[in-house]
Amino acid sequence: MKRLLAGLLGLSLTLTATAASLPKSVRSALKEAEIPLAAVSVVVEKTGSRSPYISLNAQRADNPASTMKLLTTYAALDMLGPAYTWKTEAWLDGELHDGVLNGNLVLKGYGDPKFTIEQFWLWLSELRARGLREIHGNLILDRGFFELPPHDPGEFDNDPVRAYNVGPDALLLNFNTLRLHYLPDGERMKIVAEPALDTLKLDNRLAPQAPSGECDNWDDSILIQAGGDRIVFEGGYPGDCGERAHNLSLMSHARYVETVFRGIWQQLGGKLTGAVRETAIPPGATLLSTHASEPLSGIIRDINKFSNNVMARQLFLTLGATDHASLEQSDAAVRLWLEQQGLKFPELVLENGSGLSRKERISARHMADLLQHAAAHPLSAELEASLPILGVDGSVKKRLKGSAAASHAHLKTGTLTGVKTIAGYVRSTRGQEWVVVFFINHPNAKRGQSAQDALIEWVQQR
After folding, report:
1. Cβ count within 10 A of residue 310
2. How far is Cα 138 from Cα 101, in angstroms, rounded to an integer?
3. Ramachandran category for residue 183: left, alpha or beta (phi over 0 → left; psi -120 to 50 → alpha)
4. 99-102, long-range: CB within 8 Å, 24+ apart, which pairs?
5. Which of 94, 236, 276, 336 is least surrounded, with the fewest CB atoms within 10 Å of its CB?
6. Secondary structure of residue 198 in the 3-state scheme
7. Mean pLDDT lowest among 196-210, 340-354, 358-372
């Protein structure tokens, strides 16, 4: 009996030591990055198991950055279902006769996260096919489904034109962004905007310059000022970096929809005589057409693989929507859903559901619990398929490409100043699937990727 107790005690001590320590390769990488263990939270465990193989600072509430999208997208899959779609409506406020609307055309949005230019063009083509040619009235935008406080795109990092800072909107079109292409031509620099908008004036004052180091940060020296329909480009462009492009948000939501609508409507042979107004659907208006979004299963792939913040925010607001949507309703809806799933996350702090936040918090332990719960869900394949594949696509396309771990992990990443996170599933050489969560909250967090990669490779070899 004493020998048995001693053996059990030794096994217990071994398991405890294993659970409390990180692999040597991970500890070495953290030391080189000057990131103390106190700034790291880690959970590693087999799917279906509640006994962590590694657990370090797992109960602490950390900033998860974009790994918070895992909570938003998984909750959406269960609450809404993979076939859920959003609608956008076109209403006639007036009489339509022989192609002429003597009145207003009303567009009402319900928060479609991915209403692209291509889809908008096809929908407006449908309106033309339904007999609408000339609008002798105004274009009315009903954006009232989202009840939100004013959004300051520069509040997060004082960079208001960046696409990741776009705020949610009930009538979000094409992520409210322009794709700007920079085309070097000797000593000249050509800038092309997509979509091409006739009213948009590009004031190009860029001067050629030599690249400083690698071309990854090619646009650091470009200064952009947007005012009305005029965009001024100043600074330098490294022509040796070749053609480059980025997505920027340079207009308000309403102005963007108006400008794109006028351009497409004119191309389709349509005419709009009035201005643009923002108000609710007038009484007596009649429904002309309803556009349906792509299904939720496709939406969450874009959110997770490319870490699209505004799409995640649109989805988060949808989770609590009734006759309108608000952040307070969505926060309450997600917490109720967690409670119904038997998941108690008392430290959870939600701001917008995207992880682009200085306030949002969750522990590594509870992120692992969420992933465990998802792994046992009937729709687990949908969630896992939405995650970036290590070394293959999405936000981890360039990570560990030459490693044996490439293609053997579905992982969501997160990056903010002082935050570097990763969470998801790793399949080992023996065919076992593991849940891996690795949060770093520290000023040197951006140097912690090698430590996270070392842990992924170590788990993949188990």
Report:
1. 25
2. 10
3. beta
4. 99/131, 99/132, 99/133, 99/134, 100/133, 100/134, 100/136, 101/132, 101/134, 101/135, 101/136, 101/137, 102/136, 102/137
5. 336
6. coil
7. 196-210
* Kind of pairing between the strands at 230-238 and 222-227: antiparallel
CB 162 within 8 A of CB 175: no
Strand 286-292 vs strand 87-97: parallel, antiparallel, or unpaired? antiparallel
**Which listed CATH number (3.50.80.20, 3.10.20.30, 2.40.160.10, 3.30.300.30) goes with 87-150+252-294?**
3.50.80.20
* Domain 21-83+297-460 sits in CATH 3.40.710.10: yes
Question: Per the omega criterion (within 30 degrees of 0), is the bond before 195 cis?
Answer: yes
Is the model more confident about 243 or about 67? 67
C-alpha–C-alpha distance, residues 105 and 266, integer Å: 15
pLDDT for position 211: 64
Q: Which helix (H) or strand (E) holds 222?
A: strand 222-227
- Per residue in 90-120, is it b (16+ CB within 10 Å) or e — as a string? bbbbbebeeebbebbbbbbbbbbbbbebebb
**Cα(229)–Cα(221) distance, rounded to whole angstroms?**
22
Question: Which residues make beta-bridge pairs with 192?
Answer: 181
Residues 280, 239: Cα–Cα separation, whole Å: 48
- Output the six-digit token pair for 101: 């609307």
| Start-end of CATH 3.50.80.20 domains in the chain | 87-150+252-294
